[in-house]
Design goal:
This protein is mostly helical and about 200 residues long. The chain is built from 8 helices and 6 strands; from the N terminus they run βββααααβααβαβα. It is globular.
């Protein structure tokens, strides 16, 4: 079957304060700095991890709920936890080890702080234009048409709840990482084999 050509958004002019160095072609780089190995979140992880030292989506949901990382917002849904695992599940086991959990924890805290910043009335939701601002603040440069699709997918009655906001952030990062691993020339254009495209997108 013929390959597929996909193109990302245009690069942002310069890098803003929320964009980590190394971002290109409309998508940001992500830091790999982990918390200390003595971080108490090991307690949450170890309490639910199986004998293999990994957690599946249901165990991750329980772990995050017990950790209280959602704060005053509703706990993460099982579907959001599934795509959290898929974001970091590079060997397609459907599970997450502790190092991946620490990477997720760092990302969740950053997304939470971003959400709190734009949720100025503390309603637990943000409006569509605020989501657009949050996406731009993370370093993505998306077309108005793409932003409209994202808002439609993740909003309920014109509002975006915290769980849906995080789900959006997770999927944006996962799909961007999937694309970037194949964008060897960093030009925002990739040729996909159809099967490779399906494996990368259907898993998220």
């Amino acid at each position: 079957m013929p390959g597929m050509q996909m193109q990302m958004g245009q690069p942002a002019p310069g890098t803003g304060p929320h964009v980590l160095p190394g971002g290109h072609s409309g998508y940001p780089a992500y830091s790999m700095n982990y918390p200390s190995a003595e971080d108490p979140m090991w307690t949450y992880f170890a309490a639910v991890a199986g004998q293999d030292g990994e957690v599946d989506a249901e165990e991750l949901q329980k772990c995050l709920t017990q950790s209280g990382i959602s704060g005053t917002y509703s706990p993460f849904s099982l579907e959001t936890c599934r795509i959290m695992i898929a974001m970091l599940d590079r060997d397609y086991t459907g599970k997450m080890g502790f190092n991946e959990f620490k990477e997720l924890w760092t990302a969740l805290n950053a997304w939470k702080q971003n959400f709190i910043t734009i949720d100025q009335d503390q309603s637990g939701t943000v409006e569509h234009h605020e989501l657009n601002q949050a996406i731009a603040a993370m370093g993505y440069r998306l077309s108005p048409q793409t932003l409209a699709v994202i808002v439609k997918r993740y909003s309920k009655n014109g509002r975006i709840f915290f769980d849906d906001y995080v789900a959006c952030c997770v999927k944006l990062r996962a799909l961007t990482d999937f694309f970037r691993r194949r964008d060897h020339l960093q030009q925002g254009v990739v040729n996909f084999i159809y099967d490779d495209f399906l494996q990368g997108t259907m898993a998220i």
